[in-house]
Amino acid sequence: MALVNLIFILLFLVSLVYSKVTLENSGFESPPTNLTTNSTSQFILLDTKTNRIPGWSFNGTVWYVTAGENVSLPGNGHGVQLGPNGMINQTFKPDGNYDYVLTFTLAPSSPDCANSTSVNVSGPSASEVFFFRESLGTEMWQTYAYSLWSQENKKGLMSLQIQSTSNSNNITCWPIVDTILVTGIHGPRWYSDNGFVNSGFEVGPAFIENSSQGVLLEADSSYPDSSVQSPLQYWTILGIVKYIDSKHYAVPRGGRAVELVSGNPSGIVSSVGFLKHGQVTIDFIMGDANDSCVGDFLVFLQVGDTMIWNFTMRSIGVGSREAHSVTFMAEFSNTESVLISFTSFNETRTSNNVLCGPVIDSTVLRFSDGLHSKAHKDIGLVTFSFLLAMTLLIFV
Ligand SMILES: *[C@@H]1O[C@H](CO)[C@@H](O)[C@H](O)[C@H]1NC(C)=O
Ligand SMILES: *[C@@H]1O[C@H](CO)[C@@H](O)[C@H](O)[C@H]1NC(C)=O
Ligand SMILES: *[C@@H]1O[C@H](CO)[C@@H](O)[C@H](O)[C@H]1NC(C)=O
Ligand SMILES: *[C@@H]1O[C@H](CO)[C@@H](O)[C@H](O)[C@H]1NC(C)=O
Ligand SMILES: *[C@@H]1O[C@H](CO)[C@@H](O)[C@H](O)[C@H]1NC(C)=O
Ligand SMILES: *[C@@H]1O[C@H](CO)[C@@H](O)[C@H](O)[C@H]1NC(C)=O
Ligand SMILES: *[C@@H]1O[C@H](CO)[C@@H](O)[C@H](O)[C@H]1NC(C)=O
Ligand SMILES: *[C@@H]1O[C@H](CO)[C@@H](O)[C@H](O)[C@H]1NC(C)=O
Ligand SMILES: *[C@@H]1O[C@H](CO)[C@@H](O)[C@H](O)[C@H]1NC(C)=O
Ligand SMILES: *[C@@H]1O[C@H](CO)[C@@H](O)[C@H](O)[C@H]1NC(C)=O
Ligand SMILES: *[C@@H]1O[C@H](CO)[C@@H](O)[C@H](O)[C@H]1NC(C)=O
Ligand SMILES: *[C@@H]1O[C@H](CO)[C@@H](O)[C@H](O)[C@H]1NC(C)=O
To answer: For the DUF642 domain, which residue ranges apply (predicted)?
Structure first.
């Protein structure tokens, strides 16, 4: 029994470490070299031969942009616009076994382009196209996150690249990018007796300082089934969710939570392995983000293929919350990964006509008898045996 307790203590002690990677000139506030100093134009076309953007390489048609008429940017400083074949890239040295998550801001070059602005963002192993979505924020710019996930072991340099999309549906609408941040999230996962990993959504992409817009997280089109490269560690995204911070929104617990904004569907999915059979309880908090989101929320909690519960809440948009709990018998085979999702299908809007929805936070999955309950699909017996061996060593 003492041994079991000690293992639990060890499990609780293993925790996540963040590392903020500092990209050079992440907000493009250091101007390109060799600019003609008397140029007052809001858009300055750069020449790959004579201009250099500190920290960045660029190619194709790239303009240096100053916020102003038609163009709004976080902090209203500078950004770059990517024209035909336009791309920027930067490499950085990874610092140990981290997962790297990118935060970036996308802005249209004029209000008319709000529905025709997109960029292609690439990490070392994959890429994803992001579209500006007018209906998801109150600013004429939006912040997104993308996992710079690497198929190879993280050695050598990590690269990130942002380029204009060749099939831009409006050739006058080239995208503007700004404020590019990278967060490193430490690899060895962490343990508790909670079957959900990253259960309070405290681990995820960086927020832009002073931004009240949150960070939009989208379903990954290329690897929809895997959570490895999700920007929100251990949760895959359905539709679009807004990652929100307690500085600017009502967050039920801790500093961060997710708001299911896109509807039809908008959700988060965790993959859980059950080591044994027995009675399981899932607790979570559902709320509104204090963003004037008025309406009837309806959230479905689904476990595996067959178990579904629904939860309703009338929101008046002032930051209310309700704790919920369900109990069921887990009779899954211990080799099976069970998908557990929180999903909303309905559309709700704030007083500014921005899409909004229920906030989910503080998820807990526990066997009712309290004993060790879970093995995440990535946390194998190997790790457990290692901890057991460590524990025995300490005792001998
Ligand atoms: C900058 O000033 C020079 C000399 O006064 C002028 O020839 C040039 O056209 C100006 N360039 C811009 C971009 O205004
Ligand atoms: C400025 O441009 C000249 C060519 O016009 C080039 O030789 C020089 O390296 C450039 N300087 C910088 C700092 O980019
Ligand atoms: C820049 O683009 C040109 C033409 O598309 C290509 O030949 C060249 O390799 C590119 N350079 C870099 C650094 O990507
Ligand atoms: C702002 O956008 C309008 C409409 O697209 C355009 O007519 C105007 O020239 C733009 N202003 C600037 C400074 O680009
Ligand atoms: C955030 O706001 C504070 C106070 O207004 C200001 O001092 C700071 O420079 C801002 N930071 C950024 C990145 O804009
Ligand atoms: C951008 O990519 C090119 C080609 O992949 C590479 O040679 C260059 O070093 C990269 N630039 C930066 C600043 O990382
Ligand atoms: C393309 O964008 C321009 C504004 O830059 C707008 O006037 C025009 O309607 C757009 N065309 C399409 C097909 O969306
Ligand atoms: C963008 O699309 C939405 C709905 O699809 C529409 O209400 C809005 O007017 C469009 N905006 C522009 C600038 O075309
Ligand atoms: C996005 O960029 C990557 C890397 O250059 C490329 O492999 C991919 O095909 C691009 N995707 C689209 C949709 O253009
Ligand atoms: C959610 O949407 C469905 C149709 O998609 C509708 O029947 C239902 O009434 C809506 N529920 C709420 C709470 O608005
Ligand atoms: C919600 O669950 C109840 C039973 O708990 C069921 O009667 C009802 O139809 C469900 N509502 C929806 C919208 O699925
Ligand atoms: C909601 O926001 C208002 C101000 O915008 C603030 O006074 C209030 O405390 C917030 N409520 C919650 C529950 O966070």
So the answer is: 22-182, 229-364
Residue nearest to atom 9 of ligand 9 (CA): 127
Assess whether 198 and 330 both reside in one domain: yes
Asked if 82 contacts 45 with a C-beta cutoff of 8 angstroms, the reply is no
Q: Which of 30, 33, 53, 58, when mutated, tests ligand 2's pocket best, judged by the most ligand atoms within 8 Å of its CB? A: 33
CA 59 to ligand 3 center in whole angstroms: 6
Name the residue with the closest Cα to ligand 12, atom 13. Answer: 319
Ligand nearest the Cα of residue 174 is 7
Per-residue pLDDT tens digits for 252-309: 999 999 999 998 899 999 999 888 889 999 999 999 999 999 999 999 999 999 999 9
* Co-location of 115 and 238 in the same domain: no
Asked if residues 94 and 169 have their Cβ atoms less than 8 Å apart, the reply is no
Domain count along the chain = 2
pTM of the complete model: 0.87
CA–CA dist 299, 223 (Å, integer): 25
Which ligand gives the minimal distance to the CA of 115?
Answer: 8
Kindly report, residue by residue over 149-192, the tens digit of the pLDDT.
776 665 678 899 999 997 556 678 999 999 999 998 875 455 56
Residues 197, 125 share a domain: no
Which residues fall within 8 angstroms of residue 364, CB to CB, at 6 or more apart? 194, 196, 199, 281, 282, 283, 284
